[in-house]
């Protein structure tokens, strides 16, 4: 299983952009967690990316027989863009529990980093040329010629899974830190991100694999 996961994760690093999990943590007191009804929340200023992310992850849960709703279906349109008080969040949690939600998956951008990658190949440069003048003239183009370097952004994101447990505080079950490097196509980036989150949650025992859910449905139909 882990070998398969490694192959898929490597696939997500191919293309114009990459989506890579940097670190993830799971509550050691929870071995397996199966949600029945989950709320998916994405916090970003990019409305298109937010909507697409929530909808795609919603479909992943639904494919496993789990009720799933996006924040756009539950919150007021400006809920994630306006500052909320502790009281309003507590009221929201109580409302969700009353409506049988037992989990929230929250994803947000926590930082953006500008990067520059210099190209290693400088044409027909002969490394035996050690004169100051030659080397200086050769490398000064690095700073003035955009062909010598690539500028790109790395978005640092965080996804967290919380249990809405009526008898206790809202417990953190899992947290993952995911980097998105040089995103150029929203559709591809969101799809890769959702794939990665889904794979990691399955590996951690926090989401039933779709194949296993299909077996359950098949067994139930036979009975």
From TrEMBL:
Domain of life, source organism: Bacteria
PROSITE patterns for the chain: PROKAR_LIPOPROTEIN (PS51257)
Protein's UniProt name: Cardiolipin synthetase
Organism: Algibacter luteus
């Amino acid at each position: 299983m882990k070998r398969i996961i490694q192959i898929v994760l490597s696939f997500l690093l191919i293309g114009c952009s990459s989506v890579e999990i940097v670190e993830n943590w799971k509550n050691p007191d929870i071995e397996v967690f199966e949600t029945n009804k989950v709320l998916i929340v994405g916090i970003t200023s990019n409305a298109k990316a937010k909507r697409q992310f929530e909808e795609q992850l919603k479909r992943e849960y639904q494919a496993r027989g789990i009720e799933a709703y996006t924040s756009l279906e539950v919150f007021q349109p400006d809920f994630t863009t306006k500052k909320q008080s502790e009281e309003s969040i507590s009221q929201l949690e109580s409302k969700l529990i009353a409506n049988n939600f037992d989990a929230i998956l929250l994803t947000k951008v926590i930082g953006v980093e500008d990067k520059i990658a210099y190209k290693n190949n400088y044409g027909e440069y002969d490394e035996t040329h050690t004169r100051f003048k030659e080397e200086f003239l050769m490398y000064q183009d690095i700073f003035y010629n955009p062909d010598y370097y690539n500028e790109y952004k790395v978005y640092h994101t965080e996804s967290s899974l919380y249990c809405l447990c009526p008898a206790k505080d809202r417990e953190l079950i899992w947290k993952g830190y995911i980097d998105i490097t040089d995103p150029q196509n929203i559709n591809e980036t969101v799809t890769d991100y959702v794939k990665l989150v889904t794979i990691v949650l399955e590996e951690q025992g926090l989401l039933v694999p779709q194949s296993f859910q299909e077996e359950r449905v098949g067994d139930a139909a036979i009975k």
